[in-house]
Amino acid sequence: MVMIEYSYAPQFMDLGAFQPINKWLDEKTFIELYGDAALGWCAADGQIYGTPQDSGAIAMFYRQDLFDQYGLTVPKTRKELIEQARKFKQVAPSNLKYYAPPIGNTMWWIGQVWMAGGKLFDYHDGNWYIHFTNPIAVEVFETLGACFDEGIFDLEMWWNADWFNSLNQGTTAVVENGSWFAEWLRYNAPESEGKWRVAIPPQWNPAKPTNGMLGGSGFYVSSHSKNPEAAAIFVNWLNSHPNSLKCLHNYSNLPIMVSTRYEEVLDEVSGPDAFFGGQNIVETLWEAHELVNTTFVVLPIMSNVDESLSLLIQEYVDGKIKRFADILPRWEKQVISTMKEFGYSNMITGKLP
User: Fold this and answer.
1) What is the DSSP letter of 163?
2) What pLDDT digit, counting tens, does each position of 53-78 carry?
3) CATH topology of domain 58-211+298-349
4) Any idea of the CA torsion for 304, 310, 312, 316, to the nearest 10 degrees?
């Protein structure tokens, strides 16, 4: 069996790298244990290939010390997020950032659209649907883009030494990331212990609260497995049995929240967390996960989708693209071209199912 991030699993499915486990884990049982949405992460065309483990539900991680120092409040809506960013830029030193999304990291941007209740693409009845320039996605890129254009939001390269140091030193007030980021901070920014807090991400439409995902991984049965029945039984036990869920929580510190049986161990694994100033972050992350009420299906060329977006955002940073929102139609055009280049004739563009 192999552990793969949900956003890249379809590439492996498409290449035949997994084998179906339906005869040992049927769809009805899968839904009972993991919910309808998880089928989009672990199955395709009626074939189930594995089970989901941790949640990538987006959460807002923020520096309580910076919020206290500069008189900030925790934003509940996107409008409030922008207002707080503008206030921060007025009162904080220029070396500090309020909100600095990544240059690239495709799932972060897809997660923003998903959080707003939309999609960029989908898969239905054997066809890939691609429509980046739908109204919800356009609103997200226009709204965020205006903040980049104005200079109240920043862009920076994530996952390098400079970014790691910035998290330790507290030069960025707010980071939106998947729920697993709590574990990542704990081990990679140890000097910042006690200074972080977690909140539900500011809503695009507070009247209809929802959330998106950024990452999370499943365990899939490899096509090379000579004991697929044993592998299927194990990946199901691993990600749904209460005893396993408690062990996974305690020893991996990941948000093992996808299984419907997680509620059976919730009280046992939650409690004050010293790294987050004594906050019971499990309750907050669970609430964030519960707001994820739709699935997502990613394209089978996600490596190319990610590279395309990274280059376009870099062009914006370099001044070659004037309006950030203009990235969206260019990105769509490049992705459609790549799908065609890879031979996907089962593609419908300009609408979603």
Assistant:
1) H
2) 999 999 999 999 999 999 999 999 99
3) D-Maltodextrin-Binding Protein; domain 2 (3.40.190)
4) 180
Residue 284 has a pLDDT of 97
What pLDDT does 11 receive? 87
The enclosing H or E element of 169 equals helix 161-169
Q: What token pair was written down for 158?
A: 């994530």
Q: Which token pair is 295? A: 């699935």
Residues 33 and 50: beta-carbon distance below 8 Å: no
Sheet of strand 172-178: strand arrangement: 97-99, 172-178, 58-63, 196-199
Find out if CATH 3.40.190.10 is the number for domain 2-54+216-269: yes
Q: pLDDT below 70 — which residues of the chain?
A: none
Tell me if 239 sits within 8 A of 219, measured CB to CB. yes
Determine if the pTM surpasses 0.70: yes
- Strands 121-124 vs 127-130: parallel, antiparallel or unpaired: antiparallel
pLDDT at residue number 331: 98
Q: What are phi and psi of 197, to 5 degrees?
A: -135, 165
The domain spans of the chain are 2-54+216-269, 58-211+298-349
What is the phi/psi pair of residue 3, to 5°?
Answer: -100, 120
DSSP class of residue 200 equals P
Instruction: Decide if 252 contacts 216 (C-beta within 8 A).
Output: no
